[in-house]
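Question: I have long wanted to understand how a fold can be written as tokens. Here is the record:
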Amino acid sequence: MQPWQIEKNSGVGSLRAGRLQGGLHLQDVNTTAPVVQGKTKAFWPERWWAIVDYKIGIIPLPIFLLLFLVIGAFALTGKVPSDILMAIVLLSMGGFTCAELGKRIPIIRNIGAAAIFATFIPSYLAFHHYLPDSILNSVKDFTKDSNFLYLFISCIIVGSILGMDRGVLIKGFLKIFIPLACGTVAGGIVGTLVGTLLGLGAYHTFFFVVVPIMAGGVGEGAIPLSIGYSTILHQPQGDLFAQVLPPVMLGSLTAILIAGTLNYVGKKYPHLTGEGRLQPGEHDELEREEDADHDVDVGTIGAAVVTAVTLYLIGALGQRLFDFPAPVAMLVIAVALKLTRAVSPSLQVGAFHVYKFFSTAVTYPLLFAIGIALTPWDKLVAAFTLPYVITIVSTVVTIIATGFFVGGWMKLYPIDTAIVTACHSGQGGTGDVAILTAGNRMALMPFAQIATRIGGAATVTAVLIVLSQMG
């Protein structure tokens, strides 16, 4: 029988198949040039290029190995720089290595293991000093001094808001408050009842377990909450902070796991999710404009970065003058610019490119930095007593489940609404990043900030008023 051949040209290469001795032989060809049967590729340069194209996250394998040696050499000298040059490679190596481990473990890779590993493995390594002190100090100094987290949040929020459909933007912001409020009330009731039944006491459960979970993280939640408790109860603020911090940590971890699970459920039941859109009928204007072949040059992308940072700085100035959270002010300004058409289509597309870059290339390095500098492993472990775990998990599950069902009742996508409400039980801005990464819903960052900042501030304010009246 004569050999037969099927050829499909893709513009990049061709796929040829031949029947040899009764079997089917497939051969990938990297060019459209004719193939000489039996000819093997030389190591240089074709096979070397294949090695270069193999990546750990976004880092080519040879560069990864070279950086490992370079950073090791810096560590041996006793001091690793904390500048942006070292931070880029150090955080990228750590973040993507941990994320790749999480992505390759069966079962848990489907429920957000990459985000969990990128956050909590470095926290564990830092606590036990399994990493050199010079590296730990470099990461901590850069993270605390550079405001790296808010650069990320600025670019994510501005890019995602400018990508929303104007017609549904305001509706989404108004609607999300109802699932958040219902989840807060339901979580408070269920969590307090569970803790009371487990012997923690209603007072302690509510004020020191349930409320910290919904307070909005550490800097905006646990710290002001502990200061308020200290003033009202006349106890040392440090002791109170040590009590409210573990529920924040474990609550955030629980929310990350559930968000990853919801992402997996969404793939099985696609009608329950908008894949980052909050409500049916919502369109992404940026995707439409990209389809229309808007030219986006490097200058426009740079302009989008400057625009995002400018909006954050305006919010930061407002926080200094009026004590209003900077991310929320930035969010409000971005919404106003979008609704009034104050930003040109090309700049919107540029902002969307910035959003995609940060969500792809910066998320896991940021989580690695958060794990080392902002996630104390000992505080997380302190919450792992059975009554505490059951109470915290019950509270977070109730908040998210309420968001799921109330969102469906309001004609919102249940899974996306639930992931937004999950951020109400997260570790502030760092928790939002980890939760949305695990849920693969980074486009929901504006709504997550509503849940974290406004929801957390409202919770802390209301609880301190109640506690002061009880005294």
Observations:
- The chain has three domains: 1-29, 76-144, 148-470.
